[in-house]
Write a structure and sequence with these properties.
Structural class: alpha+beta
Shape: globular
Strand order of the largest sheet: 1-11-8-4-5-6-7
Distance between the termini: 49 Å
Number of helices: 17
Order of helices and strands: HHHHHHEEEEHEEEHEHHHEHEEHHHHH
CATH superfamily of one domain: endopeptidase domain like (from Nostoc punctiforme)
Radius of gyration: 23 Å
Strand content: 5-15%
Length: 484
Amino acid sequence: MTRPRSILLLCVVSALVLVPLATVSEGVPHVAPADSAPFLWDSAELWTALQARFEAARTSDCAGAEAAIQHFASDTAALPTDAGPGHVALVALEDITFEAAALTAACPQHAALFLATADEARRRVKELSRSWTLDKEARDQLYRLLYGSRLAVEEVAVRRTGDPVAFDRLEEIPSQAPSVVVAGVRVHSGDLLVSRGGAPTSALIARGNDRPGNFSHVALAHVDATTGQASVIEAHIESGVGVFSADTYLSDKKLRVLVLRLRPDDPAVLADPLIAHKAAEAARAAALDHHIPYDFGMDSADATKQFCSEVPFQAYRALGVDLWPGPTTVSDPGMMSLFAAFGVRTSSLLAPSDLEYGPRLVAAAEWRDTDALRQDRLDNAVLDAILGRVASDGLPEVRTRMLLAARGAKAWSWLLNRLGRVGPVPEGMSASRALRAQALDARHAAVRARLEELVAEREAADGYAAPYWTLVKLAERAAAETAG
């Protein structure tokens, strides 16, 4: 390196480190869309009734569980093909889904039958939704049925017996795109791999919006048509968009993975059976051709930077295919402030969880890891409790005395980034926001540790795994006890 360039570099590093430490930039929350509002189940009585049915079933001969599953299957088969949002058959389906789940959770020997019935119900609901206009009423209906059934399914899944780790095949979805078997499942080029990471910031992406979900990340699968080699194109906070092997993708901590595929009868697929593969090819080529930084602002209108959802969004949209049913809104003031503190510049997000509701996509398989699901439920409850207290507790506290060290780490990271390497502070993330993420991690860890103690005490007294609504109540207590 020449002397002038060395001096310039020293000046840049000094500027990064020696900025005054008096304030920590928070960002400015965006105004919530006029028609947005947090979804509310408003079903406290339902949870209480389900708890009572579950406890009663634990001392019965389980005949009620088998009958409820048969009722569930009958209601699913009888769904009218023209049922729209609010139809009485859909309301009844939601009720029997929860009832059958509560009884099956007490009788796990019927878990396989319940899970198969629930998968069929979800498939039928997705089929119905293809003709819906996805306004707020329709999206709320889909959320109640698909996310609600996911809650019900996982109350059963965490209690089921047998192999604790399995890829559950939903149905064989035909595709002419190149394919390869990964971890027991045939994955096609252009498939969307929707997952949930294990970090608190992953939970924030999944839960911190008006329709909380279970997924925080999405990646695009690519299969080489000649070699059959599988790779994954995805955006990482640390390094931006990159191409990774299937083994590397699976080695990252994931609490769940859902494989989504374009419907074989989608007009775009009928016009070009290889359109999904072409989207994956384009995304892979772009990632290999030039560096695409991570988009902390989550602004899908700017393709020069990309967060995880933008990778498949931009690749498919360039071919005329919109995957998302619409953006998810963030309207709670506390959540808006928290997102702004991490640099998010919009209150309308392309949330990974929303892909599950997209009428153009169908689920091909889902990885349900019993132990990971238990961890995921605890993380969800913790973050729900933290978000619920942002208004009273404020944002996770940043220790200003650490800002000088953080800026030094950022300067070092800047140097590493110039050399094509990853530093301790992600590219595009400021030192103060890195400290904010660290503070959220610390807050999450404190609440999580206390929650684990409370759950252990409760489950020892009850003699069974706590249902999710109990976890939420215990997490709220843990958050209150560890505040400050």
